[in-house]
Amino acid sequence: MNRRLVLKFGGTSVADADAIGRLIRIVRTEVDGGGQPVVVVSAMSGVTDRLFAMAAAAVRGERADVMQQLDDLRTRHEDAARALMPESGRHAVIEALAAHIDELRAVLTAVAILQEASPRSLDGLAAAGELMSSRIVAAAFAEAGVPSVWIDPRRVVITNASHTCAAPSLDAIRIAAAQHIAPHLEAGRAAVIGGYVGATEDGITTTLGRGGSDYSAALIGAALDCREIQIWTDVDGMLTADPRVVADPRVVPALSFGEASELAYFGAKVLHPSTILPAVEQDIPVRILNSRRPESPGTRITANAPAARTLAALACKRRITVIEVTSTRMLMAHGFLRKLFEVFERHQTSVDVVTTSEVSVSVTVDDDRHLAPIVEALREFADVSVERDMALLCAVGDGLRSDPALSVRLLASLEGFPLRMVSQAASRRNLTVVLNERDLPRAMTRLHDQWFVAPAGGPRDPMSVSA
Ligand code: ADP
Ligand code: ASP
Ligand code: MG
Q1: If you measure from the C-alpha of residue 349 to the centroid of ligand 1, how many angstroms do you get, rounded to a whole number?
Q2: Percent of the chain that is helix, strand, coil (3-state, to 5)
Q3: Which residue(s) pair with 207 in the sheet?
Q4: Which terminus has fewer CB within 10 Å in the chain: N or C?
Q5: For residue 122, how far is its CA from the centre of ligand 2 (angstroms)?
Q6: What distance in Å separates the CA atoms of residue 48 and residue 129, rounded to the nearest whole number?
């Protein structure tokens, strides 16, 4: 029987000593049941944001402020360690934390002198969040009598050198995990490892991009052929709509891999979009669970969705920019689209939605950092207009593939909202519309009410969603 599993705890699930106490109870239950857990942890909530803010302040030369923030960071981590361990047991972890803080101080001082932070230095800084939280969690396990070992993610999660969004090498991770993690699991020790962080073959620290701890969990789960990957977070599972937009979303009990990856890609932040791929490749189920309510069943993500349901959930992305490119000179000339997409490729900006008409192409991007040079390059061969403050609203469900009428009815539900773009993705399991961001809350709530909340006359669609 395969006893290995990954349990990943997000920032709010390691936010303080109380949260880490809950984490220990959850992992202990697995150990008592015969499981061999790998525990992947995020930085304590807000810490990664704080580290990036400190780097930005250092670039501006605000040294006193940076050192004050560093002190606060040290205090927060030490307080958690103190609350979890008696004085006798916490010596080693306090020293390990001090070493991380010293290193942060040295790097931040260098950044403040140079007033410049390269992506490589940013990775070195950001990695400290997960390195510190995982040290505390590993020490807390020892204190609680759960045999465990701290693993340095830089020895396991091997990536390329694309700093701040490095691409992992699953083959290298497989070899490293077999060497550095598996023997501990066999010996009955829970492995504790920081997510998000990796290193190049040469040992230079990298990160997998924001929200990347989910991805770490999936990579490690795949590398060790685990039986399940559990994502422990602060909501009851994948919800039928973004809880920051819709007041009363429901839990989706089961999703297919395809549905989950579309939802993640189109804004359901509960799961990093890259998480699903390593799981799909080895057919490892992923579960999303609430660390404050471990008894609730959560969402189970497997190869197939339940047969008797149409839509799985809605997702949205705010702060979308629509770029409309109208070709005059090259009207319908072949090679136009290639030229257009080359511009986006050159500026490392990915496009989410594309629609075309005879003379124009509209695309959306959520990353507008390189917008100015993109527009300049496009203007060399086309007229370009840019609309900001747009939003993307997306309905996802494997049922959209089998019932073409569903898309029409979904659009009918949005009657009255000016839709800037409409797209049915090639996967045919999502219908996406682009609209003004100010319309998003009302549009998403209306869709949710009509499709997921049973009206007085009964639901319009057979859905297996539970409250
Ligand atoms: P963690 O720190 O545990 O990784 P995240 O903040 O990355 O947690 O993701 C969890 C958050 O995702 C939730 O608190 C919720 O606000 C947000 N979210 C957005 N869309 C959804 C959705 N469809 N279902 C569940 N959560 C969602
Ligand atoms: N701590 C990192 C972030 O905030 C990674 C993660 O939590 O998934 O982006
Ligand atoms: Mg997350």
Answers
A1: 24
A2: 45, 20, 35
A3: 197
A4: N
A5: 14
A6: 6
Give the pocket of ligand 2 (CB within 6 Å). 10-11, 42-43, 48, 129, 195-196, 210-213
pLDDT tens track of the chain, all 467 residues?
A: 899 999 999 999 999 999 999 999 999 999 999 999 999 999 999 999 999 999 999 999 999 999 999 999 999 999 999 999 998 889 999 999 999 999 999 999 999 999 999 999 999 999 999 999 999 999 999 999 999 999 999 999 999 999 999 999 999 999 999 999 999 999 999 999 999 999 999 999 999 999 999 999 999 999 999 999 999 999 999 999 999 999 999 999 999 999 999 999 999 999 999 999 999 999 999 999 999 999 999 999 999 877 778 899 999 999 999 999 998 765 566 788 888 999 999 999 999 999 988 788 999 999 999 999 999 999 998 999 999 999 999 999 988 888 878 899 999 999 999 999 999 876 678 999 999 999 999 999 999 999 999 654 334 554 434 33
Q: How many helices (H) and strands (E) does the chain have?
A: 15, 16
Is the pTM above the cut of 0.85?
A: yes
Which among 245, 32, 59, 290 has a CA at the least distance from the CA of 145? 32
CA dihedral sign of residues 206, 212, 213, 218: negative
Please state, in angstroms and rounded to a whole number, the distance separating the CA atoms of residues 255 and 268: 13
Residues 382 and 327: beta-carbon distance below 8 Å? yes
Distance 303 CA to ligand 1 centre (A): 22
| Under 8 Å between Cβ of 223 and 273 | no
